[in-house]
Amino acid sequence: MTVLIEDDAEPRRQVGALPFRHERDGGHRILLVTSRESRRWVIPKGWPMKGRKPFQAAAREAYEEAGLRGEVGKRPLGYYIYQKRLKNLDAVLCQVKVFPLQVRKQFKEFPEAHQRELRWFTPAEAAEAVSEPGLAAIIRAACRKVKATDA
Predict the structure, then answer these.
(1) Is the backbone of residue 29 left (phi > 0), alpha (psi -120 to 50) or beta?
(2) What is the pLDDT of residue 145?
(3) d(CA 118, CA 56)
(4) In angstroms, rounded to a whole number, what is the distance separating the alpha carbons of residues 66 and 111?
(5) Which residues pair with 105 in a beta bridge?
(6) Is the Cβ–Cβ distance between 54 and 74 less than 8 Å?
(7) What distance in Å separates the CA atoms of residue 51 and residue 41, rounded to the nearest whole number?
(8) DSSP character for 134?
(9) Interior/surface letters 91-110, b for 16+ CB within 10 angstroms, e for the rest
(10) pLDDT range class, residue 134, cuts 50, 70, 90
(11) In this predicted model, what pLDDT tens digit does every residue of 3-48 receive, in sequence order?
């Protein structure tokens, strides 16, 4: 049985990283990971971490879930809302603060390597692959912004 949170309930806060890399042809790629439970394409994300600023926690999640290291932006790209399914099958409303992560290194071995799939997408493909409309909008807007600063 799935229990949904009331509409007026305060969403639980999470932090996430939007991993990207520059391509030699001037384009960009976005890395998505599969969620452990539903296997949907998502960004690396998780709960805030005591003693770490939100952008640092987002970078840590990118390492744990995707083996990524790089330069994380200190200002969020935006926020999106989604329903997180808990192990007891309840669902909680979560608001994810998304930080850009320019990937410098991708490790083959990392804590959740055997629990997730990883794939590099074009920005358009990444926006189509994710289920959350708010995340798709952040991906589209971030890539437009990166193109504008490259010009």
Answers:
(1) beta
(2) 61
(3) 21
(4) 8
(5) 69
(6) no
(7) 29
(8) H
(9) eebbebbbbbbbbeebeeeb
(10) very high
(11) 444 455 789 999 999 999 999 988 899 999 999 888 899 999 999 9
